[in-house]
Amino acid sequence: MxxxxxxxxxxxxxxxxxxxxxxxxxxxGSSQDLVLHGGGNTSVKIDNLLYxxxxxxxxxxxxxxxxPAVDIKVLKEMATRASLSDTQMVAEQREAMVxxxxxxxxxxxxxxxxxxxxxxxxxxxxAVVTITNTPEGKKQIQELYGxxxxxxxxxxxxxxxxxxxxxxxxxxxxSTLEGIILLNHGVFTFDDDAKVAYEKMIDIVTKxxxxxxxxxxxxxxxxxxxxxxxxxxxxISHLRRTEITATIIETPxxxxxxxxxxxxxxxxxxxxxxxxxxxxxPFALMGDKDLxxxxxxxxxxxxxxxxxxxxxxxxxxxxxxWAVIKNRGVVVxxxxxKETTILTAIISHTINAILKAQKxxxxxxxxxxDIFDMEYWELEQAKLKTVNT
Length: 389
Prior knowledge:
By secondary structure, the chain is of the alpha+beta class. It is 45% helix and 13% strand. It is built from 17 helices and 11 strands. The protein has helices at 7-10, 17-29, 72-79, 86-95, 109-114, 126-132, 137-145, 159-168, 194-212, 226-240, 252-257, 263-267, 277-280, 291-309, 337-357, 368-375, 378-387, and strands at 41-46, 49-52, 69-71, 119-123, 149-152, 179-182, 186-191, 245-248, 285-287, 322-325, 329-334. A hairpin with a 2-residue loop joins strand 1 and strand 2. It is globular, with a radius of gyration of 21 Å.
């Protein structure tokens, strides 16, 4: 991965830390291998305030207005508590904002506050997460990055994650850390210099990319028919109670992916990163010769998944967001152009990651319980509604 830092451009912001924050955030957001459609977040500390990415903003297009200012002291105090509900966390963060009309601070605002550096960068870097989504992922990450990388087992983002890192870093000399890797989730880098924080991220991801190596894709032809798509569109539109369009992702990777022998097992192993589940659902429709029956099997499988994990949640719609039709290709089901574009990007990156993970012993994402908690998480549902308005 190449650094996009431009010294002449950066000089414009040498006396404007928030402007510099916008600049390096856009550098991160310009790479889909780091950040996909609203993923990741960044911050800068100025005086006693944390300017952190606001909900609903994308890093590749963010402006200064996308960084609500929050009282750092309040956020740090929140990290010391034994527990804090999602609703209470959001309410208290808003109360600590300078401008109450600004967007909600990132759900990772508390974590950004407790990291004792001016600039903090967080991405969901494909290459790093791919390694962690394998049977020996944690061991390989430890060997790859060594003792100067803080490695955190997966926990829910937000307060729970911030609390865990707060507890684990009480006796750590932060200056010895190159970054934080959150298994199955992403990467944090930080420094008092924006360029150093950014290029630490580039270096960490490059090391993972080199470790994974390049993909060699056998030549494979996709063979989905117009009739296949029309039938799926009608049935899935009915399930979702809105008109959808079936769109083929016709790339060498997706065509080859549809020919893998253990597809059904792979497709039930979970998403690339947990936040993707609010877009993609926990698994895809696995299609073969009888697509009507395969769709019925998907619906029953989703119901089973829901009832195995639900407490008092209300079931979401039963429509798949993407499908792999055995030996014929990969399809996404979007309600509009925007959703189709997002799904196409996420699924393309996921398939690429799975194919690379196969070389490391196979694909293994999160436990179903963790995936469900994210899909039905109150804050994630609220974020999706905001993004889609």
